[in-house]
Amino acid sequence: MTQQYLIGETSVLLAQLQGAATDQAHISAAARLRREAEATPPLALGPVLVRAMALTDELCWDSLDRGDVAAFARQCACGAELREFCVCAGLLADG
Fold first, then answer.
1. pTM listed for this prediction
2. Which of 64, 87, 94 is nearest to 76 (CA)?
3. CA-to-CA distance for 93 and 58, rounded, in angstroms?
4. Which of 53, 62, 51 is closest to 23 using CA atoms?
5. Alpha-carbon Rg for the chain in angstroms
6. What is the DSSP string of the chain?
C-alpha cells in the first residue's frame, strides 16, 4: 500500500467514526485522532490507531449503556472496518 493511501484511508475511517459518535466529547476525540493521523508518518500510525480502537470501544459501551441500538450498530461497523484495515495494512497486530 502506498503511504498516501494509508493516511487517506485512515482519515476516511476516522471521519466515519467521528460521524458515528453521539456526543460532542467523542466527536472531538475522533476529530483529534483524525488530525493526528493526517500529520503522522504512515509507519507510525499504530499508536493513533490503537487509541482509535479504544475510542470505538468506548463509544460502543456508551451506546449500550444508553440502549441506543442504532448507534451501537454504526459504531460496531466502524470499529470492524477500522480494525480490518489496520490488520491488513500491517498497522495493528491481529489478535
1. 0.89
2. 64
3. 20
4. 62
5. 13
6. --HHHHHHHHHHHHHHHHHH--SHHHHHHHHHHHHHHHHS-GGG-HHHHHHHHHHHHHHHHHHHHHT-HHHHHHHHHHHHHHHHHHHHTTSS---
Please list the pLDDT of the chain residue by residue as tens digits (95 residues).
Answer: 588 889 999 999 999 999 999 999 999 999 999 999 999 998 889 899 999 999 999 999 999 999 999 999 999 999 999 999 988 888 876 55
Q: Cell 470492524 appears where?
A: 80
From residue 37, give the alpha-carbon distance in Å to each of 60, 71, 76.
Answer: 22, 24, 21
Q: All 3 cell numbers of residue 36? A: 493526528
Q: What is the pLDDT of residue 82?
A: 95
